[in-house]
Amino acid sequence: MIWLAEAIAALSGAYALALERQEAFEHFNLTAEGFWRSFAALIIVAPLYVYSNRIDATYAAHSAPTSFSPALSFLVIVVDWIAWPVAVALLTFRTRYSALFARYITVYNWTSIPVFVVMVVPLVALDLGLIGLKTAVAAGVVLLLAQLWFRWQVARLALEAPVLVAAGLVGGDVALGLLLSRLVGG
């Protein structure tokens, strides 16, 4: 369960990245093995993604008919988990960022755990009846903005990229996720 130890260490790294601390990278296994093991974060992220899609579909059904398929939801996150690193590899190929590609993907993968955990909190509260739909939506918007900022922070620091390059990566990540959801989910 080496990946679990790396996941726990990555939580410290994620916190340090949020504070813009350069030593944040010391918490991540940035070796070739660590790169490949970072994909194990999907074990934690996938159920959270599927759950959030179920809650979204449940509450969206009140305003428009929608269906939910756990298998399709799972397929979307798995395809995205593969497609994003491929897209980044293509985008950074033969640029000064290619040398930091593995670091970025390793950090991106592991920091997906706290990102998804935080994003699912208002959905769990909504599902349990602790908050209403409007409160969950408002919290979701605030957390989405925080997530985008954090993803920007990861891109900026892990790739040592300028502000606009990091913003472009975040935009590309969002666009790819939306495209895959649309293609796979119908």
Please provide a written account of the structure.
The protein is an all-alpha fold and 186 residues long. It has one domain (2-185). It is 76% helix and 0% strand. The protein is built from seven helices and no strands. The protein has helices at 2-18, 32-37, 42-60, 70-92, 101-127, 133-158, 163-185. Helix 1 (2-18) packs across helix 5 and helix 3 (42-60) crosses helix 4 (70-92). The longest helix has 27 residues, at 101-127. It is globular, with a radius of gyration of 17 Å. The N and C termini lie far apart (37 Å). The mean pLDDT is 90.
Q: Any chance you could write out the topology, listing elements then pairs?
A:
Elements lengths: L1 H17 L13 H6 L4 H19 L9 H23 L8 H27 L5 H26 L4 H23 L1
Key structural traits:
186 residues
Compact summary:
The model has no long low-confidence stretch (mean pLDDT 90). This protein is mainly alpha-helical and 186 residues long.
* Assembly status: single chain
Largest sheet: none
The dominant shape is globular
Helix content: over 70%
> Could you state the order of secondary-structure elements as H and E?
HHHHHHH
**What is the averaged pLDDT score?**
90
Supply the helix-strand structural class.
mainly alpha
